[in-house]
Amino acid sequence: MSKISVAVGCDHAGFPLKEAVIGKLKKMGFMIHDFGTHSEDSTDYPDYVHPGAKMVENGEAQFAVFICGSGQGVSMTANKYQKVRAALCWKVDLAELARQHNNANVLCIPQRFVSKKMALNMIQKFFETDFEGGRHERRVNKIACC
């Protein structure tokens, strides 16, 4: 059985948290595709989100985690892809519900608004939570435009 693939990307604001997130994901046994950035030099988040979101869209990665200052930009960019359901989360409960009720396959983290501990706890909960299906499946099936 092959490992589950997770794409990871961030801009300069998300960089301080990215290495800890990658470490946590590796410890959980996931194969990581790191799209950068690799420093705190100013950069544009879409450059790092698009390649990872494309991997999820194409089925090459099952999940992605994107990080920027507010989480908004990475979430908006990722959600342009029809098969991506990116959830902006800042609490563990939101990460859990994003998986349970929305079958989210992308977690977006607002680095400026969560602690490292909170981010890693969200990662844990997001990846250990399964989609409930049932009444939620009908709703999730209505999300994509095409």
Quick rundown:
With 146 residues, the chain is an alpha/beta fold. It has helices spanning 15-27, 46-57, 72-78, 92-102, 116-128, 135-140, and strands at 5-10, 31-34, 63-68, 86-88, 106-110.
Cα Rg: 14 Å
Tell the overall outline: globular
Instruction: Based on the coordinates given, report the CATH architecture.
Output: 3-Layer(aba) Sandwich
Order of helices and strands: EHEHEHEHEHH
| Strand order within the widest beta sheet | 2-1-3-5-4
Secondary structure category: alpha/beta
| Fold-level CATH name | Ribose 5-phosphate Isomerase B, Chain: A
Largest sheet, in brief, is:
5 strands, parallel
Structure description:
By secondary structure, the protein is an alpha/beta fold. It has one domain: 3-Layer(aba) Sandwich (Ribose 5-phosphate Isomerase B, Chain: A), CATH 3.40.1400. It has 6 helices and 5 strands. It has a 5-stranded parallel beta sheet, with helices on both faces. Helix 4 links the parallel strand 4 (86-88) and strand 5 (106-110). Helix 1 packs parallel to helix 5 (116-128) and helix 2 (46-57) packs parallel to helix 3 (72-78). It starts with a strand and ends in a 6-residue tail after the last helix.
